[in-house]
Amino acid sequence: MRKHWELSTNGCVSSASLLARPLYLCDWFLVTSTNSISARNLTLTYDPENTPVDVLRGIDLDIATGEVIALLGPSGSGKSSLMAVLSGLERATGGSLIVADQDFMAMDEDGLAQARRGKIGIVLQAFHLLPTMTALENVATPMELAGADDATERAKAELEAVGLGHRLDHYPTQLSGGEQQRVAIARAIAPGPDLIFADEPTGNLDVATGHDIIELLFARRAETGATLLVITHDVELAERCDRIVTIGDGLIAKDTKAA
Ligand SMILES: Nc1ncnc2c1ncn2[C@@H]1O[C@H](COP(=O)(O)OP(=O)(O)OP(=O)(O)O)[C@@H](O)[C@H]1O
């Protein structure tokens, strides 16, 4: 989040050189230029030494704090790869990438893991819950590992918020696909991340359950104000977002704001 204006101790935001009157908190959203993500000429080549595959070929993308973005594109166009790079799961091969004020290109894998912790929530199509842990443990454990001393309470509260307060001690195999995805959403949101990434979060669910999951994800996101980037093939879902970014052959092919 790049803030180009400083908040002074009296609660005003001011820039004497540019504006005659002080700016008050209500002006904040008008004058701040905040970016969750700023990518320039981002490239990703898999297996550069042996059989190189150029997947991202020069992505320029700014995502504002709190924006809800749908990422569309044909199969194999590079959507998941772009999400992996923007979320710090994969290191880009070239270009520049600032995420939540952190220079991802200056970090190694450990640095990226550290940068993700608590700040970036990820929801994937296949849930990826740990089978030997209960719903509560799946949500609490990452926060415990990050050093939170109230991890269990927060995990419990988030599982209640996603409608699973009565299934805290159940294991993933004892839960339906929709319930497992609710746990995954709780795990992503409980640490209070600035950014949430969702890669086809309804891909393994029937239509009705998928609809419920999207309602839940959007509702929880709205309550937290986090930035959300969601990969989808569902045009109706994309049209609910603030902006639709379409990727084609490793490049941004189209970038449209909602009407
Ligand atoms: N680890 C890898 N090594 C080599 N090539 C890869 C690797 N991962 C992905 N690719 C290739 O990168 C390209 C983009 O893949 P990616 O999964 O990002 O596309 P996608 O748009 O998300 O596709 P889909 O909608 O089918 O999930 C594909 O051609 C894929 O085969």
From TrEMBL:
Species for this entry: Pontixanthobacter rizhaonensis
InterPro entries: AAA+_ATPase, ABC_transporter-like_ATP-bd, ABC_transporter-like_CS, ABC_transpr_LolD-like, MacB-like_ATP-bd, P-loop_NTPase
CDD domains on file: ABC_MJ0796_LolCDE_FtsE
An example molecular function term from Gene Ontology annotations: ATP binding
GO cellular component: membrane protein complex; plasma membrane
Protein name: ABC transporter ATP-binding protein
Domain ABC transporter: 37-259
Keywords: ATP-binding, Cell inner membrane, Cell membrane, Membrane, Nucleotide-binding, Transport
Origin superkingdom: Bacteria
PANTHER family: IMPORT ATP-BINDING PROTEIN
Similarity comment text for this entry: Belongs to the ABC transporter superfamily. Macrolide exporter (TC 3.A.1.122) family.
Keyword Isomerase among UniProt keywords: no
